[in-house]
Amino acid sequence: MSEINIRLIEREEAGNPIQVAVIGCGQMGTEIITQIGEMKGMDVAVVVDLDEKRARAGYAASKKAAGAEIIFTNDAAEAAEAAAAGKKIATSDYRVAIGLPRVESVVDATGSTYMGALTSLACIDAKKHIVMMNVECDVTIGPIIRRMAENAGVVYSLAAGDEPAAIMELWRFATALGFEVVAAGKGKNNPLNYYSTPDTEQSKADERSMSSRMLCEFVDGSKTAIEMASVSNATGLKPDIRGMHCAHAKVPDLNTTFIPEEDGGILKSSGIVDFAIGVHPGVFLVVKTDNQRIMEGMGQRDMGDGPYYTLYRPYHLCSVEVPITIAQGVLYGESSGHPREKLTSECIAVAKRGLKAGQVLGGIGEFDYRVSIDSAETAREENLLPAGLALGCTLKEDIPVDTVITWDMIASPNESALLDLRRLQDRLYS
Prior knowledge:
The structure is a single chain. Strand 3 (70-72), helix 4 (76-84) and strand 4 form a beta-alpha-beta unit. This protein is 38% helix and 19% strand. The longest helix is centred in the middle third of the chain and has 18 residues, at 135-152. By secondary structure, it is of the alpha/beta class.
């Protein structure tokens, strides 16, 4: 029995399960609530969504919520009283959820960089652990939020089950053993169409009972760039080229594809992040050793002749795995992955249609731009607009399709706590 399971059982038997707040009750948030309902030693005390009906429905498949009274309120005192009486809370105010006295860990499953900033600041103020399933926020202000969380004595963590944390699991294993990490990557299962919009994905989204905006974020490559930027910022690995190589490869081909050009691969350098079309599901590392004795041992274990080897995790269970991160943070003060002190990679915005002066930019996964990836150094040198800050920015000039958007093209940014945190992060760590 794992140590985490033992500790959770102890919390259950003591009548003191870990109390969790889930912010954002879409597909992922609902699955987290449902999975926690299967576990010992952990319970969801409060669910946050702007839609009351959806917030209440988040509890629908949770065994622990079966028969429980669900109270919808945006009053902090009423919520605290109801929670103390064993009732389930639904609210549209994240501050009510984070302020509940017994809540120890907060999951941000909103996908909104702006909301990620607000919820993180509230968690730090209330000294609640942060599980950042909102990778869009992590790649924008992760370093400053992580530092502020540590100063407050709480954990800031990427979410187990998401591809960045799954890759981190392999990366920690490989680097602990002394392997050189040549490449870290993920498979892409959705078709790749850089000009996808919510409209082009609507019918497919309806078939899958998901948001067309979210499906568009996957199809236009934005989510892949965001996830691999998160890995880059957590490990120091860099994109080999702007946008990554996007190679077509099966699992047996990974350790002959994602290796340096001089050895027959596609890479200009070693120590990179990328993705493969043809590998699904799962995440991978390509690692290297020059030690002849280790190479012989790897060969005996059917890992190939070397010196390049593939470490492959053939699954990532998304929201189903998130409770592991919650437990790690509360029980051990550990993260499933987090950014280093400063950004290694930047997520940048590339116009996916012609844009006009005076236009106010929409969000990621919508109609105006897709997200790509480049080194943070290049982004600074070329004054590129971070994609996580693009929403609400007003353009001062026309921008042709496929153009990378720069700060010079912006008439006015969207002033917010998110932008304030990014400015502070840039001053401190750039």
